[in-house]
Amino acid sequence: MLKRFSTLLLLPLSLLIAPLALGAEAGHDRLNLTTSWVGLASLLTFIAAYALVIGEEFTHLRKSKPVILAAGLIWAMIAIVYAQQGYDHIVEESVREFLIEFAELFLFLLAAMTYVNSMSERRVFEGLRAFLVSKGLSYRQLFWITGALSFFLSPLIDNLTTALVMCAVVMAVGKDDAKFVAVGCVNIVVAANAGGAFSPFGDITTLMVWQSGLIPFGTFFVLFIPSVVNYLVPALFMQLAISKEVPEVETEEVRIKRGAGAIIALFGVTIVIAVSFHNFLHLPPFLGMMTGMALLKFYGYYLKITHKPHPNDDAEYGQVGDVAAFDSFRQVARAEWDTLLFFFGVIMCVGGLGFIGYLSYASELMYVGLGPTLANALVGVLSAIVDNIPVMVAILQMNPVMDEMQWLLVTLTAGVGGSLLSIGSAAGVALMGQARGKYTFFGHLKWTPVIAAGYVLSILVHLWVNSSLAGVSPGGL
Asked: Is this model's pTM higher than 0.85 or not?
């Protein structure tokens, strides 16, 4: 409920107070629609759609549906007005530009999700969980190990998958200790979000910034120290609430399926290809990811034609005892299609609001009125209340004049700001469902002050450690 009402109040705050006249954007022949019926109707349409997104937990309406509908309605209203004024192709050209932006993100994520699904099908993550559970570690040791693994895995796979795997470990070990599970989950959420902030592959927001060409691939890693600070500061306080007692060990044999190691290696090769395509051939990163997915499919074909049934096979798409061979297309089908289509809706909705002129005013209000440092710090707070994806889409479409240090700052804050609340990131929301009754909104809120301390300190450390990037033009290294 808090997230629902806060979003409705805060998300449109900088948009509803647009001045009576902004003027057409120079060089684009765009009409001033910010105070017209189209502007206000589009804004209300987006707010209504996002209210349904926030209420997904209660309505069980998939989040992609309202934003896709809102995107169509917003651009249809814009097109009606432009057609009446005799502008035939300006709206169409803008829609195609946003479609290209989505397509690049979509294909990149589809390849990454296929690899993660393939590793899951080969039982890589189940094997990791069983290994950790069987080691006879104390609660405090597991607290640090699951946190550290979350921090270092999320830059390679997405922070949501990382959080779910580590939460399974915490749940398996601490099933009789609700306090350990609660604090352990908070630690995992903070660590996964912090780890994803210093890698282009760690979070959707970092991926969008990288693909936009604003920050070179290698420059993201200067956020490593601020990200470590963001994770370690709250962890040092939270560990004091964790017992040093050693829980009873339960051994579980998990058979990792044939080819798992090769798929992990191919994923690494795919990342190298994507980075090389972008850095050396000046090709979009998604093309490298799709090339790497083709390698996975060829290897999947090899696994299929050489498959030999194993008596312990438990095919994910059949009954126990089935002997289904690896099918790469099945892993494509298991991609998070609701999430992918949600990105489409958000990019198109925010793009429509930007086309109308609202984002220009919001950029003026935030980045000129408040200054980039304060504005970027507030972006992280807003990400905790709403979601970092639409916030970062809006920032990228605003395209405020900032140097590399400030673009890195907004990348950091958008990535780690969601840790302030359990509802502020996909990892937190997912863990509330996985550890239902043990990891809760108010259980996380108890630790928000120390998480906020880590958030503020990470910003200060970034401004200090990476001060040499001040004044460097975006993409300048």
From this structure: no
